[in-house]
Design a protein that fits this description.
This protein has 23 helices and 27 strands. By secondary structure, the chain is of the alpha+beta class. It has three domains: about 5-305, HUPs (Rossmann fold, 3-Layer(aba) Sandwich); about 355-515, Isoleucyl-tRNA Synthetase, Domain 1 (Orthogonal Bundle); about 575-675, OB fold (Dihydrolipoamide Acetyltransferase, E2P) (Beta Barrel), CATH 2.40.50.140. It has a six-stranded parallel beta sheet with strand order 3-2-1-13-14-9, sandwiched between helices. Strands 18, 19, 20, 21, 24 and 27 form a six-stranded antiparallel beta sheet that branches. The protein binds 5'-O-[(L-methionyl)-sulphamoyl]adenosine (MSP).
């Protein structure tokens, strides 16, 4: 059995799990399921990162010891994953005894292999407690006279000459470049490899790897001649979790699991923590004389309806369980189907590696089109047809007519090959796309073979038997293909098809329709993905984004139901005359903070003072390019508040979500001129 070992980042316990954390964990779960189905010896590890200054500070504020605090909050992650049906083989906490021992062993091993790699000196510089990372000024942003972290947008702390152990990171730029050149798959996808290669080429500075100003961490296992107590830098501690989970209880680094799984380890991470994984971690391992993991796979970031997920915007902090419950309300399997739908959306919508934007519109769109229409429909109609036209009519599906001639066997073969390669290469969205070609082909097959017509003609009995057999075979293949992504759907369908819902589902063979299966009448079924109509969509939206949370944010408006475009009704001239359209000249344009679609304009309409107009055109126009431009303004639109600003008019633009161009006049017309 080939080993497959996948890890997620271990999450900071001071947060509650949101959609972003759920994404990484679900992707890892999907990959683990895929490999288990293929018979690989699979390990999947997740956990919590519990040491560091941030935890100590929060515990102090709450009057708890850090250990009491982490014991209270760490279960939030473990429980959330359990409820989401995620199946890691283990959940590691950095406060686990074995982990603490292994981190100390790693330190000693570095000291033994390369004594000069750890040395005492004094650290002075900026530190972001949110990232638990040291920064140079070139890596920070200025807000007034304060340096702020670009990730957390909060002021960084100045660490003034703190005595610290340093790790000789500078020595490892060349060895790491050599490793990456020899193993290009070490960092994937490629854009992140290039990012790290150029970072390494710029040279590395030694890294401070211990702190003395707080105590919540793993003690450095060697005395400082000056007698100061040091704790190991929280990232050195946290990164070691991937290895410590495999080590024996005595905390030594080695043993059968390390030998078996470590060379196959893949660290799945968000792009935010690439440098820690692709530079620091392998450098520590090289220094300790230990082999490197097989690779690091970085994925992009989710925003929610155009906004970065952040504590200051509660509407962006989507609770995955709440979303699953809301999405599953209409289904007989409830939350289980909601979880499957969420998994499907997350994996289909954002190709691994790219960034993605979560919107209710796209979620409902995919639910209705791809789950209710394509998959749900195929399952429903096929099971109904097989039971009613076949078994209930005394006809056993048989392959007598030869399913090869139907053409669908070829599509099934290609789909299995494409999906296997895509999933092996972590291209989840592409894999799903190819699985959906087979699902759509299945629906076309039902339409084209029209079994209800065949059933009326006794001379077509052999053809009907073949059609029903082929349909059964397709359902079996689809059941297997969707299992890593839609585990509850696959399990339910498997139960209907075989009567053995608990049986292991395996990945399909290369020639999938030729795989034998037991021909039996499917158990009675119910539709798994009832369509989400406008009313249900609005209800889910309000459940997820209650009005008090939404107030004052772009979330305030429920998504508009995607109706077929309607041709507007005819109007009279009097209707048109009600519009006061005027030529305006843009005097100033600035971006609206935290709203990446909006610009705030000052527009001259020939009145005593310019109009303040907020326009959703930031994606199409740089503010500086608008100044001096002539535009057409709806001047008698009632003023309205947008993003905390008053908008006193609207600019005409072509396009809906993507602005294609602004309306304008082709000669210089005085501001305020009426357009008729
Ligand atoms: N504790 C460190 C990781 C140590 S690993 C040795 C940490 N924890 S975290 O709680 O902040 O989790 C960060 C990870 O959560 C990201 O790398 C990513 O996997 C996931 N995500 C958090 N927000 C996310 C998005 N908005 N989008 C996608 N993934 C996100 O960093």
């Amino acid at each position: 059995m080939t080993p497959f070992y996948i890890t997620t980042p271990i999450y900071y316990v001071n947060d509650v799990p949101h959609l972003g954390h759920a994404y990484t964990t679900i992707v890892a779960d999907m990959l683990a399921r895929f490999h288990r189905m293929r018979g690989d010896d699979t390990r999947f590890l997740t956990g919590t990162d519990e040491h560091g200054q941030k935890v100590e500070e929060t515990a102090n504020k709450r009057g708890l010891t850090p250990q009491q605090l982490v014991d209270q909050v760490a279960p939030r992650f473990e429980e959330a994953w359990q409820q989401l049906g995620i199946s890691p083989h283990g959940f590691i906490r950095t406060t686990d005894d074995k982990h603490k021992k292994v981190v100390a062993t790693l330190w000693r091993q570095i000291r033994k292999q390369n004594p000069e790699d750890l040395y005492l000196a004094s650290y002075q510089g900026w530190y972001c407690v949110g990232c638990e990372a040291f920064y140079t000024e070139s890596q920070l942003a200025k807000d007034g006279d304060q340096w702020v972290c670009t990730v957390h947008k909060k002021p960084v702390n100045w660490i003034d000459k703190e005595r610290s152990w340093f790790f000789k990171l500078s020595k490892y730029a060349e060895p790491l470049l050599a490793h990456i050149a020899k193993h290009p798959e070490f960092i994937r996808p490629e854009q992140y490899r290039s990012e790290i290669v150029s970072f390494l080429k710029g040279g590395l500075r030694d890294l401070s790897v211990s702190r003395t100003s707080f105590q919540w961490g793993i003690p450095v296992p060697e005395a400082d001649p000056e007698g100061l107590p040091h704790v190991i830098y929280v990232w050195m501690d946290a990164l070691t979790n991937y290895l410590s989970d495999l080590c024996p209880p005595d905390g030594s680094i080695g043993g059968p699991d390390v030998a078996k799984y470590w060379p196959h380890a893949i660290h799945l991470i968000g792009k935010d923590i690439l440098r820690f994984h692709a530079v620091y971690w392998p450098a520590f391992l090289l220094s300790a004389g230990l082999p490197l993991p097989k690779g690091i796979f970085a994925h992009g970031w989710w925003s929610v309806r155009g906004e970065k997920i952040s504590k200051s915007l509660p509407a962006t902090r989507i609770d995955p369980l709440k979303l699953a419950d809301a999405l599953g309300t209409g289904s007989p399997l409830g939350r289980q189907i909601g979880i499957d739908a969420m998994r499907y959306y997350l994996m289909r919508e954002m190709p691994l590696g790219n960034d993605g934007d979560f919107t209710f519109e796209s979620l409902f769109g995919r639910f209705n089109a791809e789950l209710a229409n394509d998959l749900g429909n195929l399952i429903n109609r096929s099971l109904t047809v097989i039971s009613s036209l076949g078994f209930d009519a005394g006809i056993t599906p048989k392959p007598s007519g030869g399913i090869e001639t139907s053409g669908i066997a070829e599509v099934a073969r290609k789909t299995v090959a494409d999906a296997t390669t895509a999933f092996e290469q972590f291209q989840l969205s592409r894999g799903l796309e190819s699985i959906w070609t087979l699902i759509r082909e299945g629906n076309r097959f039902v339409d084209a073979s029209a079994p209800w017509k065949l059933a009326k003609d006794p001379s077509k009995r052999a053809e009907l038997e073949t059609t029903l057999y082929t349909l059964l075979a397709i359902l079996h293949v689809i059941d297997k293909l969707i299992a890593p992504v839609l585990p509850s759907t696959a399990r339910t369908l498997h139960g209907w098809l075989t009567g053995r819902a608990d049986e292991a589902i395996t990945w399909p063979a290369a020639d999938p329709l030729a795989e034998p299966f037991e021909v039996r009448k499917p158990d009675p079924h119910t539709p798994l993905f009832p369509r989400l109509d406008d009313k249900m969509q609005a209800a889910i939206f309000t459940q997820m984004v209650p009005p008090d949370v939404a107030a004052g944010t772009a979330e305030a408006k429920p998504p508009e139901a995607k109706a077929a475009p309607v041709k507007p009704a005819e109007i009279t001239f009097d209707d048109f005359a009600k519009l006061e359209l005027r030529v305006g000249k843009v005097l100033a344009a600035v971006a609206v903070p935290k709203k990446d679609k909006l610009l705030h304009l000052q527009v001259d309409l020939g009145e005593t003072k310019p109009r303040s107009i907020v326009a959703g055109i930031a994606q199409a126009y740089k503010p500086e390019l608008l100044v001096g431009k002539q535009v057409i303004v709806v001047a008698n639109l009632a003023p309205r508040k947008m993003a905390g600003l008053v908008s006193e008019g609207m600019i005409l633009a072509a396009g809906d979500e993507a602005i294609l161009g602004l309306s304008a006049v082709d000669s210089d017309v005085p501001p305020g001129t009426r357009v008729r």
